[in-house]
Amino acid sequence: MTAVDAELHAWDGDLHWQESAAVWFHDMAAGWGGFFRFGVHPGEGFGRSMLFAYRDDGLRFRRVRERVALDGEPTELAVGTGWAGVVGDVVAYRWDELECGADLTFHPFYEPLGFGVSADESDLHEKIYAGHIECSGRLTGKLRIGEDAVDLDALCHRDRSWGPRRMDGVVTNRMLTGTMGPALSFAAIEIQTVDATNRHGFVVRDGVVTPCEDLVILSTIGLDGYSVDAGTCHMRLVGGDVLTVTCETIDGQLTPYDGYLCSEHLSIARCGDLVGMCDNELTNNPRLGTADLPFTTHVDGGDGLSQRPPRWWR
């Protein structure tokens, strides 16, 4: 358990303030997995919950509640039937819908980290994340879909965040976060805001944390612009190593956030001989941006002469 999980943070009065907990997981042996997020927005007086669970055979459950009225200022992360908090000295999650329920406990592989490892991720924090931690581990307990239940023992990755969120400034986003177990966990994010591109990430190998110097996330996107079948993340680490994680989607769902829309893709992840799970998240959100898109990443250098950026991972 970490101190940030024990209770809600003090709301600073910003109308855009939110506090949330999110987890994505997959039990390799049972073939069950899912994604959930519970968030409270005290400035606007409502909470949000997203529940998604699936089996490899295709049975799935999804429930989104975007506007759940809060009774005064919240004192815990509880929205609808969902709850996230601390029981004893462990982080726990619960929900109880008619068609799906869970009572789950998180077991970390390492101490939680920010995307940039340290707390001073100035550009990302000032624009998007005022407070944010990431951590991989195992998720154990009961998970029920329909009339069937399983004793879950899943690889998982979680985040916990608090502070103002101005999602109208995000143009596009890519995020790949997951774990193969203690041997390798990873968190990588690329965010294109209206005025900057931010890339942050780290890997943890047998307890040793190494930040990324650079990274790129390449998604195989369907015609609808949101569905992702597969992906690749190249991470150039401090010290010069380059790690490549590939992933294939098992199942996924859309996470609405007012005009901002994420697509989450729970995936089998591979790096060398290691196999695990990840969430391959994608957001295409151009209409809420207020600046022209800088279409100069790999194609279309614009009018006149230009130099294509090097693909250092090739």
Q: What report would you give on this structure?
A:
This protein has a single domain, classed as AttH-like fold (Beta Barrel). Helix content is 3%, strand content 60%. A ten-stranded antiparallel beta sheet has the order 4-3-2-1-10-9-8-7-6-5. Strand 7 and strand 8 form a beta hairpin. The longest helix is centred in the middle third of the chain and has 6 residues. The protein is globular. The mean pLDDT is 88.
Quickly list its features.
single chain; 314 residues; mainly beta; AttH-like fold; eight-stranded antiparallel barrel; 2 helices; 3% helix; globular
In short:
This protein has 314 residues and is mainly β. The protein has two helices and 18 strands. The protein is 3% helix and 60% strand.
Report the oligomer: single chain
Portion of residues within helices: under 10%
N- to C-terminal distance? 40 Å
Largest sheet: 10 strands, antiparallel
CATH class: Mainly Beta
The portion of residues forming beta strands comes to: over 45%
The SSE order reads HEEEEEEEEHEEEEEEEEEE
Unreliable residue stretches: none
Radius of gyration equals 19 Å
The order of strands across the largest sheet is 4-3-2-1-10-9-8-7-6-5
From the spread of the alpha carbons, the general shape counts as globular
Structural class of the secondary elements? Answer: mainly beta
By DSSP (H or I, 4+ residues per run), the number of helices equals 2
Looking at the overall shape, the CATH architecture is: Beta Barrel
Fold-level CATH name: AttH-like fold
Question: What is the domain total for the residues?
Answer: 1
Kindly report the name of the CATH homologous superfamily. Answer: AttH-like domain
- Number of DSSP strands? 18
- Mean pLDDT score: 88
